[in-house]
Every structure is written in C-alpha cells, then in structure tokens.
Design a protein that fits this description.
By secondary structure, this protein is an alpha+beta fold. The chain has 10 helices and 13 strands. It has 2 domains: 259 residues, Arc Repressor Mutant, subunit A (Orthogonal Bundle); 69 residues, Alpha-Beta Plaits, CATH 3.30.70. It is 33% helix and 25% strand. It has a 9-stranded antiparallel sheet with strand order 5-2-4-3-13-10-12-11-6. A two-stranded antiparallel ribbon has the order 1-9. Helix 2 packs across helix 3, helix 7 crosses helix 8 and helix 9 packs across helix 10. Belongs to the Ahb/Nir family. Pathway: Porphyrin-containing compound metabolism. This is siroheme decarboxylase.
Amino acid sequence: MPAQHPADMALLNTWQRGFPLCPRPFAAIGAALALGEGEVLRRYARLQQAGALSRIGAVFAPGAGGASTLAAMAVPPARLQQVAAQVSAHPGVNHNYAREHRVNLWFVATGRDAAQVEALLQAIEQNAALPVLRLPMLQPYRIDTAFDLGHGPQQARPTRAAAAALDPADWPLAALAEQGLALNERPYGDWAARLGMEVHTVLETLGRWCAQGALARFGVVVRHHELGYAANAMAVFDVPDGEADALGRALAHQRGVTLAYRRARAPGWPYSLYCMVHGRDRASVLAHVHAARRTAGLEGFAHAVLFSTQRFKQTGARRFAQHAPAAEDRHALTI
C-alpha cells in the first residue's frame, strides 16, 4: 500500500533519522508539519496497521551489544514451507526469507552473545535435520535501513562500529528501544516508568548513544514491500580477501545499495562480499546490481544474484530482548 497522502509520506520519510528526543515527540513532529498531536498519532497508527510502519525505535550500530549472524540452508523445495515455519518460530530469528538459489532459506539469528546464537543454530539444525551455513559479518561497509520513499535508498553514509558495547546497566533501555515507542502522547514516559527512571535520564541516554555512535539511527523504520518496493535481491561476490575492503567501500556508495558488508565464507559457499538492493520491480533491481558491479570494479569476479521469493518473517533485531523489564514492573514516578 504505497502511502499517497503528503502528510503520510512526511511522517514516514522525514523522521527515519533525528526523531525528537523530548517528552512529547509526536507534538514536536506535529508542530513541524502543521498537524495536531492527535492527528500525527492517528496517522502513525493507521500506517502501522497497514504494515507500512514497522516501528519507531533504535537501529543499533555493529558492536553496540549482543550477537547476530546471517545463516542459510539448502532446503528441499517440498520441505521449504515446513522448515521456514520452524525457523521463524524461534524468537531469536528476526528475518527469514526464501531466495532464488539452491541455498534457498536465509535468516538472521540474534542473541545476547555468540554462544546463545550458536545454540539457536544448532537447535534449528537438529529440528530440520539439515546443515546451517554460518555467515558472520566480518566488516560492515554500509548498514543503514533509512529509505528515501521518493527515490529509494538514501545516499550512502559511512558505517562505523560502536566505539564500545553498551554498559550492562543500559541493556533494559536498549531492549525497549529495540521494541519501539508506543503510539501515545508520552511514550518515553512509559519507558521511564517501566525502568524506574526519570524521563530526562531516558532522553539523555538515547541522545548520548546517538552522539557516541552506539545507535546507527533512532526513528521510523518502514517496511519496503508494503510501500511499493516489492523486489529485493542479495548480490554476493567471490573476491580476494586482500581486495575486499576497497571493493566493499566502493560497493557501499552505489545507488540502490542498502546494505554492504564482508562475511565469512562457509563450506560450499565461496562468496564473501554482499550487498542488498531494493526496487519497485525486478528489472530496476537488476539494473542497480549491474551498475554497481561496473562502477565498483566487480565485473571480473564470480557472483550470484539471489532474489527474494517469499518473506516468512521480518521484525527488528532483538539483541537485548532478554533484558526488557516486564510490562507490569512500574514505578511511581512523577513524569
């Protein structure tokens, strides 16, 4: 459902970055757009119900905490739906897609640490009686899910890892930030009440995370498919390790590329350089991939383009989920 109304486009597009860190953020957005606070909340609620809005919250930078890995399986086609359902049922899996390849099921596993992620992958292997390829990220070049709804992926910004992992004392707030804000007048007040903190402390902490790079961004997270970007492909390249960084940095700056990173190889999987490309149709995605290969100097390397054929699960990462305060754990604070 492509958003048609200019106000809806502004609400989804403008606030993917720099979402207001103030006690009444939706009133601040309304003031910027000449809308009432209630109208802003109603529009966001409708967009969320329609699937265009995933959440409003944190996108943490690599190294901020927790662990994750891309994983993949070669599933016999007759078993794909069954195995995909088993994989999606795990809370630690936040993305799960079928793709056009012999290795046809691709998902992201997350957890509080590497040991928990490995235990999840072993459980999936045992349940499916199939091996799982482990493809951990070695170097990010572009990790930025901000998406210009007028022109597609936004201009590349350099991706940097967090300077340091979050302090364990901050993990409960991080868990709430991953979940996203409630659509009410004082959503940060809800978080403060659940954490037993003052609102200004919550806001100051979020601002510090943004300034220090622990947060890649804080704001609106959209669903591409529901907004008309129905085609997406993962392009993978087999490049020499010594050239991967230079090629990866070049790839990250290509128009249409939303993600670019280097990952570990796996048995039977020689590719190490990855990028994601989204578009309104298959032809436009292929055009972006071909242009990126040419401009980034990748034409001479073996590659594959894996289009997504089915989305089984898509949620935000939940690296800190186990540290979320219970909803009923409220403290009497003056907010």
